[in-house]
């Protein structure tokens, strides 16, 4: 008999809850429903194409990535990304007088949640507004230090999650210690 996993909703909350201050100064809670498979795939494609564009090094690579973006299927015409990813919460925020920068920040967080999951959503949420750059560790030493301090860092990082690239996968370099150990054996 095979493995039987049941009760998905017992273990996973398929919603995202955001608390945002509205124009009247009152903090309100908005629940973002679980995205449809179609929306999830669309968001993943957008993130992947964005990664291709930002990692392109030649005009031909940029053109190919932009062509991919232009060939993406439309979900609904006339909707912004914020309206697509937030659904009815977008309309509720507008009605409550939530400011544009706050709505856009919420939309970025929801996009990160759809594409990369809870940890990415938390990082996007904590990045704050402003320049659009998330405080996040840059190099390995800074990432390790940030892990020890709960993720707090002063180094800027890209606010939009980048898609992983498999086109330039390399084996990790061996340290000089492992080379010395190998040659001593």
What's this model, at a glance?
By secondary structure, the chain is mostly helical. It has helices at 8-11, 37-55, 59-70, 81-86, 88-96, 100-116, 118-126, 140-148, 176-184, and strands at 16-21, 27-32, 133-135, 156-158. Residues 129-139 and 151-185 have low confidence and may be disordered.
Structure description:
Residues 127-185 are annotated as: Disordered. Residues 140-150 have a biased composition (Basic and acidic residues). By secondary structure, the protein is mostly helical. It has one domain (8-135, 151-184). Helix content is 51%, strand content 10%. It contains nine helices and four strands, in the order H-E-E-H-H-H-H-H-H-E-H-E-H. The chain has helices at 8-11, 37-55, 59-70, 81-86, 88-96, 100-116, 118-126, 140-148, 176-184; strands spanning 16-21, 27-32, 133-135, 156-158. The chain is globular. Residues 129-139 and 151-185 have low confidence and may be disordered.
Secondary-structure element order, as H and E?
Answer: HEEHHHHHHEHEH
Q: Would you tell me the overall average pLDDT?
A: 75
Q: Which segments are poorly predicted (pLDDT under 50) over 5 or more consecutive residues?
A: 129-139, 151-185
Give the strand line-up of the largest sheet.
1-2
Residues in β-strands, percent: 5-15%
Which overall shape is indicated by the principal axes computed on the Cα atoms?
A: globular
Instruction: Indicate the percent of residues in helices.
Output: 40-55%
Total count of helical runs of at least 4 residues: 9
What about the largest sheet? 2 strands, antiparallel
Cα(first) to Cα(last) distance is 47 Å
């Amino acid at each position: 008999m095979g493995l039987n996993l049941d009760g998905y909703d017992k273990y996973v909350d398929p919603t995202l809850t955001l608390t945002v201050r509205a124009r009247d100064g009152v903090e309100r809670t908005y629940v973002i429903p679980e995205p449809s498979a179609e929306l999830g795939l669309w968001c993943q494609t957008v993130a992947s194409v964005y990664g291709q564009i930002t990692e392109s090094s030649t005009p031909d690579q940029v053109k190919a990535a932009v062509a991919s973006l232009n060939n993406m299927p439309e979900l609904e015409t006339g909707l912004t990304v914020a309206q697509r990813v937030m659904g009815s919460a977008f309309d509720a925020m507008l009605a409550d007088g939530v400011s544009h920068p706050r709505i856009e920040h919420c939309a970025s967080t929801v996009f990160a949640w759809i594409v990369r999951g809870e940890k990415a959503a938390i990082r996007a949420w904590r990045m704050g507004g402003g320049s659009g750059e998330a405080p996040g560790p840059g190099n390995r030493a800074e990432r390790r230090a940030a892990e020890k301090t709960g993720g707090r860092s002063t180094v800027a990082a890209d606010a939009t999650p980048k898609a992983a690239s498999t086109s330039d996968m390399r084996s990790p370099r061996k340290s000089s210690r492992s080379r010395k150990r190998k040659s001593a054996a």
